[in-house]
Amino acid sequence: MDVTPELLSFFPLLKPLTQEALMALAQAAVYEKHARRSVVLSAGLEANRLCLLFEGRLQAVDFTVDGREVGLYFVDRGDFCGELGLFDYGPQPEYVIALTPSVVVSIPLDDFRNHAMEHSATVTALGQRLAKRLRQMSQQRTLLGMPNISQRVCCQLWELLPEGSRSLLRGSIRNPPTHMEIAIMLNLSRETVTRVFQVLQNQDVLRRAGSQELEIPDLARLKALAEGVQEL
Q: What gap in Å lies between CA 180 and CA 194, rounded to an integer?
């Protein structure tokens, strides 16, 4: 499938660009389909392309010294990854894999740099995304150091809540990660995460609302568990 300027304008990162710039990027871009668990970007290789997610969901992962997979961040529809090479020309720092069948639009970094980096709104969006991911990965390192497994899971759930809803009495997590995905993020086994979820559901801290939503009927309780003020 050919990439068109209209397709590129779907992505918030590219909306500020002129039609001329979109046409030039469309000519250089590639439309890619990825099966579940396939590798979209490989760590250690030259970072030479920006990947924009049109359909599906991606996750950036790394590996511990003993070979265990650790999740770093998610890439959702309309989002992007692979941007670090725009600034330092270094190698890709982590693997990015497809969690579901996904469609990615790939743009060579040299072409993106030539046509997009002169637009202040695009540069600002890139900077904001880098800052957000740095904060996420810093928080993730803190979570991995927590010795209490239940607290670690609760803290991860708290981080998955939309920031604007954390001051409310109740909330929800839309399109929550699977138990396996949370296990990868927290360096735990899937069985361990499942056991914690069962306890949380038995104590009415969590409620399943289908496969696409987790309801949190008492945000204050979840926060207390995440901060270690209370224990399961």
A: 9
Q: Are residues 99 and 25 in the same domain?
A: yes
Helices (H), ranges, the chain: 5-8, 19-28, 85-88, 109-116, 120-144, 149-160, 179-186, 190-202, 219-226
Q: Write out pLDDT tens, residues 36-63.
A: 989 999 999 988 999 999 999 999 988 8
Contact of 184 with 70, CB cutoff 8 Å: yes
Residues 17 and 97 in one domain: yes
Number of domains composing the chain = 2
Tell me: the pLDDT tens digits for 143-155?
888 889 999 999 9
Residue 147: both structure tokens together: 């010795």
Residue 95 domain boundaries: 5-135
- Are 49 and 68 in the same domain? yes
Residue 98 placed within a domain: yes
- Beta bridge partner(s), residue 107: 50
